[in-house]
Amino acid sequence: MKRLLRPLINGILKENPILILMIGLCPALAVSSAAMNGIYMGLAATFVLVGSNLIISLIRKIVPDQIRIPIFITVIATFVTIVDMVMHAYAPDMYKILGIFIPLIVVNCIILGRAEAFAYHNGVIESIGDGIGMGLGFTFILVVLGGIRELLGNGTLFGLQVMPPSYKPVLLMILPPGAFLTIGFLQAIQRYRGGKS
Amino acid sequence: MLSHFLLLFIGALLVNNILLIRFIALCSFFGVSNSMSTSIGMGMAVTFVMVLASSVSWILWHFVLVPLHLEFLQISAFILTIAALVQFVELFLKKNSPSLYRAMGIYLPLITTNCAILAVAFINVSSNFSFIESIVYSIGVSGGYTLAIVMFAGIRERMASAPIPKVFQGYPIAFITASLMSLAFLGFKGLFGL
Q: ipTM score here?
């Protein structure tokens, strides 16, 4: 259990992919105009992460070192194709909103990065834990980012009206500049907290 | 006809700028924009590979995947083709054009995981572009990429000596700068009715 938990917590807090490692930014900024989008995008990426980490940790002993990257990419592309088809079939509305960012999971640095840095050197259980942790850390930031932008830019949270009717939404927050602004401030806050402790 | 291509080009270059409006390829946007010279090299390499990759992937899609009914292999086929293409370009440049290799060689491995290249290949297919349209579109997108990253590098070089609060130094202020640039590019919305 501990072997599963340690990498899991590590991914959510200490090595959060977006805020600390600064990878996987594109989908994080692009789909975070509402909190719900963040959940879907995060879960899709988590599925691919866990799946590819699992397969790569299983085959790591038989993969020749020189051609490991093309093999990783093939494994990842397979899982991305599965997610792409499943979402297309069962969540067509969300598929339209997330659009090109679903197939682009294949070049998301988080996934190849974890395959190379973690799953290739660790056992199956740790790799699954790492996949879940990194995936949840990614989802967490997407939801926080989406929540802030949706709340300020639209007055709602997960589609429900939260702000009083007299609140005037700041349209800028759900437009592209709002994404850059929010993540800049989130990082500054993270640093401020890190510098204190 | 010419105005159609011009609109496609301007739309890709300014109105839907790939970095600042569509949020694709941000890792390299923040990663290599520390100095003007590296971002110019990166812009050149992206332009070169993007035009090449969109023509190769267009041919692959229309002459191999569609006739064989293998559309579901799109993601795997495109990413592997682009990875192989980048390797090939690197070898070719190293052997035949050492000066060009010196200018953009070190950026080529980075490009394999640059989502802009793959994204343009997908957009070409999903928008049903003809071969010429996809070339024009990829030139527009890569021009927009180079424009944004070179401008951003220029601002970041100046910012290096500015008195910025400690917690905002480095990435946070870079994001806020990008936000202001994005705001400026938002002003192009509606240009020529795009």
A: 0.82
